């Protein structure tokens, strides 16, 4: 297979996008459109947008180009959908969306489109963050953590909060101190949990707070080690899925259901799954 990128005429790009936007206009036509599509708003399709973004990430993780293409198409449809709704309210349309991101990318790459210099990826990243800081300031977002969406998935939000704080020096100097903090938070969680051993009912809100602290520190540890915590957890999820499926497959061979299988037997096949490639 050639390593050269797929070559397309500009007219093909324009035609493909025009076809998709025309389809969405037809789906949203007040008189002849699709009843379901006509009912949708920015708010109602936002969850689908998030879902499609995750499905793109899953397709990338699996590495099948056809699946990646299809999922990217689904995500693109969400952008077209949101743009169409906005256009109907005279807010903006897809052209405005494309022009906006084009202007933003040009502004954030002065080493390509202007006379700035960047010798490596680290300098590019530093310049990128400086430009974003100025953009936030222009929007009136003057605090260091402004602009980090509270609607982001919790793991990603934690990484962004920690990274932004670290840019101004609010960070653990080394991994060892983060590990010490992790041990401290674990002890606090155990202390709260041990109220059960004394015959008391643990404070659920306090347990949630302490567990949240542990998770925040673990994410900080990953960030410090330059490990993407989302990817690390996703990898473990895939590993768990594979091993648990192995247990289920073995039970199926014996005509047994999982509910009729003892924990000891499931543990045996779990350990067996760990030996598989």
**Percent of sequence in beta strands:** under 5%
Number of H- or I-type helical stretches: 12
Order of helices and strands: HHHHHHHHHHHH
Low-confidence stretches: none
Shape: globular
CATH homology superfamily of the largest domain: MazG-like
The termini sit apart by: 28 Å
Roughly how much helix do the residues carry, as a percent range? 55-70%
**Chain-averaged pLDDT:** 91
Instruction: Give the tally of β-strands.
Output: 0
When the domains are counted, the total is 3
Which class of secondary structure composition applies to the elements?
mainly alpha
CATH architecture of the largest domain: Orthogonal Bundle
Reported for the largest beta sheet, the result is:
none
From the alpha carbons, calculate the radius of gyration and give it in angstroms.
25 Å
CATH topology of the largest domain: Helix Hairpins
The CATH class of the largest domain is: Mainly Alpha
Give the SSE map.
Elements: H1 10-27, H2 35-39, H3 42-62, H4 65-88, H5 94-107, H6 110-113, H7 121-138, H8 154-166, H9 175-193, H10 204-224, H11 229-253, H12 263-273
